[in-house]
Amino acid sequence: MTFFTKQKPTESLADQIAKIEVGGKVKFTNDRAVFNVEARNDKFIILTMIERGKSYHTIMDIELGKRGKDNMIFHSGYDGREECEERLKEFTDGQLKVSHRNNVPTIIKWVKNAEGKVL
């Protein structure tokens, strides 16, 4: 005998991404950290977080549905919103890409706006 449970229909990734705004926060299902949204456009979103005094970042490639570090060796230039805006231009221009070796699928658990309200 098979039992079925009622589950709420989940939002599509596109619907979740549409809610992401600069100044908000994003929690991914495959990561324990909560990331701050520093920069975004129609193709990429740059998120950062600080844990134990160390800065981390992830870049969402909206079209490919994946996220990860950039394809450079030292991954610098993500300290603060201004630097992230500059990096965003480099991603948009094709100078930088999300690493093809170090990326994971984008699976969003929740999105919060700048006021902290879960969307």
Describe, in plain words, how this protein is organized in 3D:
With 119 residues, the protein is of the alpha+beta class. The protein has one domain. Helix content is 16%, strand content 38%.
Summarize the structure.
The protein is built from 2 helices and 7 strands, in the order αβββββαββ.
Sum up the structure in keywords.
seven-stranded antiparallel β-sheet; alpha+beta
Distance between the termini: 38 Å
The backbone outline, from C-alpha atoms, is globular
Tell me the helix content.
Answer: 10-25%
SS element count, helices = 2
User: Average pLDDT across residues?
Assistant: 89
Radius of gyration: 15 Å
Q: What is the number of E strands?
A: 7
**Proportion of beta-strand residues:** 35-45%
The largest sheet has its strands arranged as: 6-5-4-3-2-1-7
**SSE order in H/E notation?**
HEEEEEHEE
Number of domains: 1
Q: How is the topology of this model organized?
A:
Layout: H1 13-19, E1 25-28, E2 34-40, E3 44-51, E4 54-61, E5 66-70, H2 81-92, E6 98-105, E7 108-112
